Amino acid sequence: MVKVLKNKQSSYFPTLKGILMAVENALLEAQDVELYLRPLRRHLQCVQETEFPQTGVLIAPLFHTICLIWSHSTFYNTPVRIIVLLQEFCNLFIDQALAYLLPEDLLRGEIEDSLEKVQVAVNILKTFKNCFFNYREGLASYFMGNKELKPWDFQSHLVFLRFDKFLDRFIKIEDVFVTILEFEKLERLEFGGTKGAILNGQIHEMSEEFMELCKIFKQSTYDPSDYNNMEFESDYVVFKSKTLDFDRRLGTILCEAFFNCNGLEAAFKLLTVFGNFLEKPVVMEIFSPRYSTLVHMFSAELDMCKQLYNEHVQQIEQGNVVLNKNMPFTSGNIKWAKEVMDRLQMFWSNFASLRDLFLESPDHAWIYQKYTEMTALLDQFENRIYNEWKSNVDEICEFNLNQPLVKFSAVSGLLNVNFDPKLVAVLREVKYLSMLKKSDIPDSALAIFKKRNTLLKSIGNLELLVQGYNKLKQTLLEVEYPLVEEELRSVDEELQAAATSLTWQDDCWGDIERMKTATSELERRVEHAQNNVKVIQQTMQAWVECTLLPRREHRRETALTWEDKGDLFTKKYTLIQEDGCKIHNLVEENRMLFRATPSLDAWKIYVEFIDDIVVEGFFQAIMHDLDFFLMNTEKQLKSAPFFQAQMILMPPEILFKPSLESEAGDGFYDLVEEMLCSSFRMSAQMKRVAAHLEIANYQNDMDNMLGLVEVRQEIMKRVADVINKVLDFRNTLDTYAYLWVDDRTEFMKRFLLYGHTVSSEETGPHADEDFPRQPPTLEQFKEQARQTLCIYVVTSFLIELLYSDFFFSNCRLTFMRLCMFR
Prior knowledge:
5 strands; 822 residues
């Protein structure tokens, strides 16, 4: 058509040609725009499909693509078109944020959840806006070669007009949520001290008022995301005004609580609790005058630390420094310095966080200088203590590790482990210094510390060796020494080697184990043998504790009876016979422990030692029986008599059972002597331990024991004395012989005929003629009864005299019958 019009030279040709050129240019522009906007399709799709909290990472690639379009496109690099494109992306992110936030439930939901969502949205929106400015600044990098730079010189509000209003609204919502959460913390605040109750009441009252204020948002019906709705703005203004007042009240409470603090630590704890509120300008303005007080409190803390430091250094100089429990000198002092340093650094870190809030305070310079001086002093102290230890540790390790394992005492000859306490201190120092993270510990100290397990194991075994050896040397008896002399000499030779040639540097574990085994085995056998001797002594002690006859109640019916005398020693004999076999077995066991032969002279001496112990045991057992007789034959004894004999009236004589006559073979004296002989015969119930002495038992030793013989003689003397006393008592009864010699029937007959007693001269063949018969009167009967009662009282008194001794005669019944008959 164009060609036809051109050939015909039509007047329509110029117009049609212009239309054709415009269409061609529009096509080129459309192709260019489609070509360069095509990559945005993928970015747009990703933003729409990705969860909103994760879209932040998509913003930078998006702006990178937009910058490439601006720098390469021929037709889409004008401000009008790029502003529209950016506005569309702003609207896209606003829509995505609204879909994520659900504004209708934003003010009614949980504050923590709502705040988290709002902060996510605000951060993403801020990221989008910041990327715009960052990439606008870096547009020059997208124009390569000779291309002319075309900046984004248009005003940013043309792009972010709606975006800024939306972002500003959610920044205010975020501020509301943050403020609500901050004031909710007031519910958990609790003050102590003298004003604690008052301050707690004020906080509680303010918390309730704030919760009432928050209801204006929770009960609202508007859409908080609609930035054209001014209801939120009005509520927000009221909210900020009220919170400003709350901040003033909080500042006042903070000042009162600060004055109520009893120290720097409590003050910093208070300020930490009020941390977020302290950043508020109003609170900081009210608290500012108290900041100087806090500085002086910190200064006082530094002064106290300096005083503690001076006292600690003085204690070190005097040698009575007090360190942490169980810590050695060096690491203990370093630990002390670090604890003081940690305390100061903790206070300083709290103080430094406040310095940023009070930048214009003139106290910062001098308090910082004072703090640095104190910390430098502690550092110097720590370095000095540590360097002094380092300077000596090499010499200590080298000298003491070359010492022998053990040493003998020059005074007592006893053995000691020769591990110097200085080496123990080095091990402990390295342990605690490692815990304190010291990195420059000397190699010599580290080397000994690496061997600590081996050293401690060796020391432990050597301690057992020394303990066994010293116990052996201290407890070994003179009679036992010849039996173990060769074994002990062998042990001494090995210990001498350990005390001269074996050092802690050597690998001597095998030697230590061998010496310990030999010493422990010998000490065990000797101790076992000595325990056997103790068992022998305990066994014979049971003989002593086996009483001959238990002392019974203080009644006369409980005296010793002669019928049971044969059973008194039967139980004791049986016990001694059984124990004798046990003692012989223990002696044989000791021979096996000492590895001795019966013919060995040293063994014979040892057996005689045991034999003497047995002799002493029999002596104590027999002496116990003799003491029993002595105790029960004491004249001062006030309990029931121990022996008794029956006095029998066989007119015209008075006899005793058992007999008290010396000619009787089974008399009282003979029976007591037989009991004493039975006690001595205990020593014949056991065979002699020292068989080589060719003496069957211990009877002869006991019979000739001077101490036993003297006591035996004393007992028999007491028996003889009491026999004489009883016989004298019997002779005193001759005065009353007429009571049992005269015919009692004839006596009664005459008394009834004549009314009085008649003598033997008056009883002739003409007695009835010479004496008139006169029956007795009542008074005569009473007189005879009185005489009889007098006889009873006198004889009872004589009998009681016998009861006060260890022997009595059972004669009361006989006299009572006679007196009653009389």
